[in-house]
Amino acid sequence: FPSFTQKYISVICICLLACGELSYPKYTAKQLVILLFLLGISAINYIIVSDVMFVLTLVFIFCAHDISFKKIGRYTMYILLFMLLLIICSAKMGIIANFMSIDVFRERQFIGFLYPLIPATLFGNLVFLYAYYKESDVNWGTLLLFFIANSLIWYWTDSRLGTILTFAFLLFLVSNKLFVKYSLKNSFVKNILIFSYVISCFIGIYTAYNYNPSDINHLLANIILAGRLSLGYKALTTYPVTLLGMKLPLVGHG
């Protein structure tokens, strides 16, 4: 939306959410702690980078505290499926622009989006939500459709990281049907997913900060990751890493 339209829509949404919260002002101690935590993050973010949309996102997340995640996930799946089909079909039919980038290594279509990683990410979200909703028991026909759709997105966008992650998750669902069954609601699986995020974060920062182009292993890893290690090293060594963060003049989504 144009910026002036976006402002009016945001104000209307905030007013509706405020009315909803004030009409039922009963919070548990846990919800109050979460509210204070989100207010702190919002204040820090707004002071340093003035990112209004990030603050609004946290507001929307908190106001969903009494709605089950399964219900939110169900509606999100419908919206994602409709939006992906509409945008990709519109791009392929020439109704909206299908941007392309061509370089030495690959040719990429944006299939209606402004960045080629977005469709792969959104489709991954759709697969993850559907598997959660079905408690990991996804039928073979749906799994086949997911494999075909993900293959098409990979072929069009060449978004390796997003599509490979989705393929890996689909293989997990296949093994889940053939061998030992694990529900995504299982506490063991949930703990693996939560801690894998934290561990991967620290491994990523450590590897980027200690990147050495003269080391053959680092060089190979950098090539596989399309230069992200060297870019991460450059960002971490060029700018200081402060406790509360800082706004960096970086180009692109990296």
Any descriptors?
single chain; two-stranded antiparallel ribbon; 2 strands; 69% helix
Percent of residues in beta strands: under 5%
Category by helix and strand content: mainly alpha
Radius of gyration: 21 Å
The unreliable regions are: none
Largest sheet: 2 strands, antiparallel
Q: What form results from the Cα inertia axes? A: globular
SSE order, as H and E? Answer: HHHHEEHHHHHH
Q: Report mean pLDDT, rounded to a whole number.
A: 87
Counting DSSP E segments of at least 2 residues, the number of strands comes to 2
Give the proportion of residues in helices.
55-70%
| Ends apart, CA distance between termini | 24 Å
Neighbour order of strands in the largest sheet: 1-2
Please work out how many helical segments DSSP would assign: 10
Quick recap:
The protein has 10 helices and 2 strands. By secondary structure, the protein is an all-alpha fold. A two-stranded antiparallel sheet has the order 1-2.
If you had to describe this structure to a student in words, what would you say it looks like?
With 254 residues, the chain is mainly α. The protein is 69% helix and 2% strand. It is built from 10 helices and 2 strands, in the order H-H-H-H-E-E-H-H-H-H-H-H. It has helices at 3-23, 29-49, 52-62, 69-92, 117-133, 140-157, 160-178, 187-209, 216-224, 228-238, and strands at residues 100-102, 107-109. It has a two-stranded antiparallel ribbon. Helix 2 runs antiparallel to helix 3 (52-62), helix 4 (69-92) packs antiparallel against helix 5 and helix 5 (117-133) packs antiparallel against helix 6 (140-157). The longest helix has 24 residues, at 69-92. The chain starts with a helix and ends in a 16-residue tail after the last helix. The model has no long low-confidence stretch (mean pLDDT 87).
